[in-house]
Amino acid sequence: MSDVSVETGTYEAKMGDYFALLKPRVMSLVIFTALVGMLVAPVPVHPFVGFVAILCIAVGAGASGALNMWWDADIDAKMKRTVGRPIPSGRVQPGEALGIGLALSGFSVVLLALATNFFAAGLLAFTIFFYAVIYSMWLKRSTPQNIVIGGAAGAFPPMVGWAVATGGASIESVLMFALIFMWTPPHFWSLALFVKTDYGDAGVPMLNVTHGTRSTRNHILVYTFLLAPVAIGLGFTSIGGPIYLATAVVMNAWFLKGAYKVWKRDDADAEADKFKAERAVFKTSLYYLFAHFVALLVEGILRTTGAGGVA
């Protein structure tokens, strides 16, 4: 069956097109970090309540993605990396994306409040607002620090997960937030170095566009250095332990080594080998975050089973 209406010549959106609006890749990271935040908390959560909570957080993340795609449709159409998204490709209409984003936002926040507590629901609502309004509508197009400040949106999920269990915040949840917050700039700036024409063509004031690649390389190294003590420090809290500390030391050494390689290079070096070091740091950053949260989860399981961890 054709996806194009014979009568109108318009494309008929499929379920997959609407699902793509929710940014499933980003959603998977949100689900994972929120789940870890909830499971490592000192207060146990009933499995059914936990399932509903993670579902709400996932839907809230998807709502943020839909609202972001609605607002950014014009610049998405100018970038090779995003031109195939549902709105610029014509598969979903902007009004549909806006309606889906608003509906899912309300649904996720209200259901989370009813299933868990108002603090967790309020934090989820603020996360959606921060990503859709503060980051997408304001920071992204107005300042090269868009990724630095806007990174808070992606850092809130483990705090929400922790709040589901405890009804509040703590040094542990704040440090999980800080880990993702400090990780975000070097993660995205390393990507920006090898997709620089995309951001420039779209008029997005990414650091490499406004201040040049040398400044971007400097910032990547500085933020990677600042990230290390945050990541390692988390290991000395109640949710840390020897497995997490070993993971943090190894991963931060690996990340710093890659950032140093990127810092030493110039544009000629990067273009000569097709941004090999920059691509490697971006790839490392993905392993980096996953490894830290897996280690936290392992420590949590060991504590629950009485097999180890920090008391």
Automatic annotation (TrEMBL):
Topology of this chain in the membrane: Multi-pass membrane protein
Transmembrane region(s): 26-45, 51-71, 92-112, 118-138, 159-183, 222-255, 285-302
Organism of this sequence: Cognatiyoonia sediminum
Gene Ontology molecular function: protoheme IX farnesyltransferase activity
Enzyme type, top EC level: transferase
Additional comment: Carbon 2 of the heme B porphyrin ring is defined according to the Fischer nomenclature.
Catalytic activity: heme b + (2E,6E)-farnesyl diphosphate + H2O = Fe(II)-heme o + diphosphate
Keyword list, A-Z: Cell membrane, Heme biosynthesis, Membrane, Transferase, Transmembrane, Transmembrane helix
EC numbers for this chain: 2.5.1.141
One Gene Ontology term, aspect cellular component: plasma membrane
Protein known as: Protoheme IX farnesyltransferase
Metabolic or biological pathway, per its Swiss-Prot or TrEMBL entry: Porphyrin-containing compound metabolism; heme O biosynthesis; heme O from protoheme: step 1/1
Family according to the record: Belongs to the UbiA prenyltransferase family. Protoheme IX farnesyltransferase subfamily.
Gene Ontology biological process: heme O biosynthetic process
Location within or outside the cell: Cell membrane
Domain of life: Bacteria
